[in-house]
Amino acid sequence: MAFGVYVHIPYCIQRCTYCDFATYEQSKILPPDQYVQVLFSEIRQKHKYYTPRKLDTLYFGGGTPSLIPAPLIVSIIKELEKFGYTTGPDTEVTIEINPATINTDKLKMYLDHGVNRFSVGAQTFDNRLLKMVHREHNAQQTLETLDLLRKHNLNFSFDILFALPSQTLEGLKNDVRIAIEQGARHLSPYCLTVPDGHPLSKGRPIEDEQVEMFEFIEQELTGKGFQQYEISNFALPGYESQHNLLYWTDQEYWGLGLSAHSYSRSTPWGTRYWNVNAIGEYTKQIQGDGSQEFLAPHKHLPESQFEVLEIHQALTDFCHTSLRLMRGLKVNELQSKFPEAISSRVLNILANIENKGWVRKAEDSWSLTREGIVLSNRVFQDLTFLSGEI
């Protein structure tokens, strides 16, 4: 089984208008070296949750991990190694970076310590839209950052945000084409999602235009050799995000830092657990436990911070994450994880959904059709199971 570690670095230059992650402007939080010391304490406390092993993936997310000094990122890698969680040439080590937050020296330090994948916070190449969502960088700075990565022939990815207020299809086409021309090997298009009444909820493209935007992205990327391997992710062959695949294929992962989420298979149907999302409370909780070691999350965390899954929850998770992938839900994996009566029920539901044209059956799997991708929430609703139903 694959295994990975996620490390949350919550520092930002400025909070973006659309962001709902647990992040702080860098001047409104404890200094980075102190935060990393809290991370070290968390590693010492929880390292026995999982068997020490070579990591398949290590992901530094945020926030803007590239905003803090590079030696601190390196120190986290070394601290994990002390407890047996090592990296090697085959480990996918990703760091999220924002334009204008790295230079040649910082990049060299990353590369010298195994970082081999860069997720660039580009979002759009339209300066007007960048200002609208309070991104601090401009398009030129993004291009300069990509040029630095390209000079070293590095593997980089970035998100494309679409359906922004006043954004046009022509503007989106420009973003996608620049991304391809700049040499990105992985692209994640995300439709802006904000609640009614949010400052960015007015003036957005209507739903039909949003669908047209995504269809253009899909056609343009697949025409240039990218493969859609998950609903919102496209990659050149061999450049799929191995870390994200952990989440979608029922693998264990360990999340460290403010608000980080984890998944352990230490109980029959798995345990989800998470850290609090307020920096003061997170720090107090970790430091308050001192140098203690813990064997399992559900044996020491407050009840508000873990969930020992029941079979209906595990089944719902399995169906939803499997169908997000273009490879689909593997019948043999379903049957090996769940009792026969339950797996048969899922297959019957899929057969009924097939009649609507939303899923298709292959020899050993079920996957979403093009229409099913657009209506995926309705498919997932049919495959959501409640307590007592199974």
Tell me what you see in this structure.
The protein has helices at 32-46, 70-82, 104-112, 127-132, 139-151, 169-181, 207-223, 242-248, 279-288, 311-324, 331-337, 340-354, 370-374, 376-382, and strands at residues 3-9, 11-12, 24-25, 57-62, 92-97, 117-123, 156-162, 186-191, 227-230, 233-235, 252-256, 261-264, 271-274, 306-308, 329-330, 359-361, 365-368. The protein has 390 residues and is of the alpha/beta class. The protein folds into 2 domains: 3-246, TIM Barrel, CATH 3.20.20.70; 312-382. The strands form 4 sheets. A 9-stranded mixed sheet has the order 9-10-8-7-6-5-4-1-11, with helices on both faces. The chain has a 3-stranded antiparallel sheet with strand order 12-13-14, with no helix packed on it. Strand 4 (57-62), helix 2 and strand 5 (92-97) form a beta-alpha-beta unit. The longest helix has 17 residues, at 207-223.
Q: How would the blueprint of this fold be written?
A:
Layout: E1 3-9, E2 11-12, E3 24-25, H1 32-46, E4 57-62, H2 70-82, E5 92-97, H3 104-112, E6 117-123, H4 127-132, H5 139-151, E7 156-162, H6 169-181, E8 186-191, H7 207-223, E9 227-230, E10 233-235, H8 242-248, E11 252-256, E12 261-264, E13 271-274, H9 279-288, E14 306-308, H10 311-324, E15 329-330, H11 331-337, H12 340-354, E16 359-361, E17 365-368, H13 370-374, H14 376-382
Parallel strand pairs: 1-4, 1-11, 2-3, 4-5, 5-6, 6-7, 7-8
Antiparallel strand pairs: 8-10, 9-10, 12-13, 13-14, 15-17, 16-17
